Amino acid sequence: MFKNKLAVLFTCLSVFSFSAQSASFDTVTLGSKGGIQDGNLTAFLIKSEADSHFVMLDAGSVVNGLIVSEQKGAFKDITVPDDSPYTKVGYLLKDKIKGYFISHAHLDHVAGLIISSPDDSKKPIYGLEATNKDLMKNYFNWSAWPNFGNKGEGFKLNKYNYVDLQPGVWSSVAETTMRVISLPLSHSGGQSTVFILKDSEGDVFAYFGDTGPDEVEKSSAMKMAWSALAPFVKQGKLKGIIIEVSFTNETPDKSLFGHLTPNWLVKELSVLEGMNGKGSLKDLNVAISHIKYSLKNSEDPKVIIKKQLAEANNLGVNFIFPEQGDSLQF
């Protein structure tokens, strides 16, 4: 019994040590869910190991996500300067987050950004042109909310600077050492985005906004995203992926509305594997986001999705299920 416990402890320490030595990106989950669970909607902080500043990958929950994450110790290594007038949550929002990457303008991906905007600091919003236009038209328009942007309707408060990313073109990320490339994704007839971040060492991390499988969406968008990532897989430079699985396998294709199931995710990842050969994705860390909260008195969808992914995983990838407040290294 004692030997078994020692073995487990040694294994855990080994994994932690390997992750610490090889990590290129730090992430904090400010919101892990899709759909209706307000206060815990899709939002991730990410920074390069070479940086002290974060950017956000979507912003469904911002301030509440920071509060929960601080309570769970995700920011224990960050010290608020003595001359700062802010709490740690305030300091993080105003001084440590240096921009937003918005995959698409659905409310469960932007609600936190909108609500926190009056007390936020000046920073860029990165997105494809269509996404930025949706933010201007639908939210920052002096009807739904004041116009905190530098473009759009009415008087412009100029807090947020819209940066239109050109698909397939690398761009610098202000006040970090990272660069980013974006590609459009298909989302039930609309457009979402995959962001691929690259650090100064050439390691990359991919964040997928909401998307359905190419076969259902009648699209080639996912294949294009995999093609962009394939060279980094070959070089051993792809450090991790965050991608959605909104529904269980029991959900029919006609009811996916631009989302993935466990079976569809594994099929899509198999396309990426096929570009570099069998076993090329072994041990790749894939974090699952956007699991829909259910009001039904039945088994937690996350439990079902976790089981179904394990059963379908013939790729050897490491599926991770982050909860709000979790900090992970990739």
UniProtKB/TrEMBL annotation:
InterPro entries: cAMP-PdiesteraseII_CS (IPR024225), Pdiesterase2 (IPR000396), RibonucZ/Hydroxyglut_hydro (IPR036866). Keywords: cAMP, Hydrolase, Signal. Residues 1-22 form the signal peptide. Pfam families: PDEase_II. GO terms for molecular function: 3',5'-cyclic-AMP phosphodiesterase activity; 3',5'-cyclic-GMP phosphodiesterase activity. GO terms for biological process: cAMP catabolic process; negative regulation of glucose mediated signaling pathway. Belongs to the cyclic nucleotide phosphodiesterase class-II family. This is 3',5'-cyclic-nucleotide phosphodiesterase. It comes from Aliivibrio finisterrensis. The lineage of its organism: Bacteria, Pseudomonadati, Pseudomonadota, Gammaproteobacteria, Vibrionales.
